[in-house]
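Incident log, support desk, overnight shift.

02:14 A customer reports that sequence design results differ from what the structure should imply. Their input is reproduced verbatim below. On-call engineer (initials T.W.) acknowledged and began investigating.
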């Protein structure tokens, strides 16, 4: 029976750790008013966080597409943090901040 060298074991463990950590996604909610919209980048800012939309982004309430977003609108955004960026999974328009406390 052959033995695995300690250096090989460490290398394999490091490779596994890096593989699991790279591209990790963390879901979270961001609530607030849209401060700015960048049509070219398909991104908007809430609470000083830049959030990008994708083809998989869902829109709720009065929103049907990215172009429906308006500066000053109060939104709740489910975001995924991936590779140092925030991506909108779901964008929900709220008529006012009180709706967001449900």
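02:41 Re-run completed on a clean worker. Output:
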């Amino acid at each position: 029976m052959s033995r695995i060298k300690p250096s090989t074991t460490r290398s394999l463990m490091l490779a596994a750790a890096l593989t699991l950590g790279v591209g990790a996604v963390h879901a979270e909610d961001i609530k607030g008013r849209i401060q700015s919209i960048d049509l070219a980048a398909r991104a908007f800012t809430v609470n000083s966080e830049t959030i990008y939309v994708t083809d998989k982004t869902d829109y709720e309430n009065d929103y049907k597409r990215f172009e429906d977003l308006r500066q000053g609108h109060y939104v709740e955004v489910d975001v995924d943090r991936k590779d140092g960026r925030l991506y909108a999974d779901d964008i929900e328009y709220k008529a006012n901040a009180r709706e967001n406390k449900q």
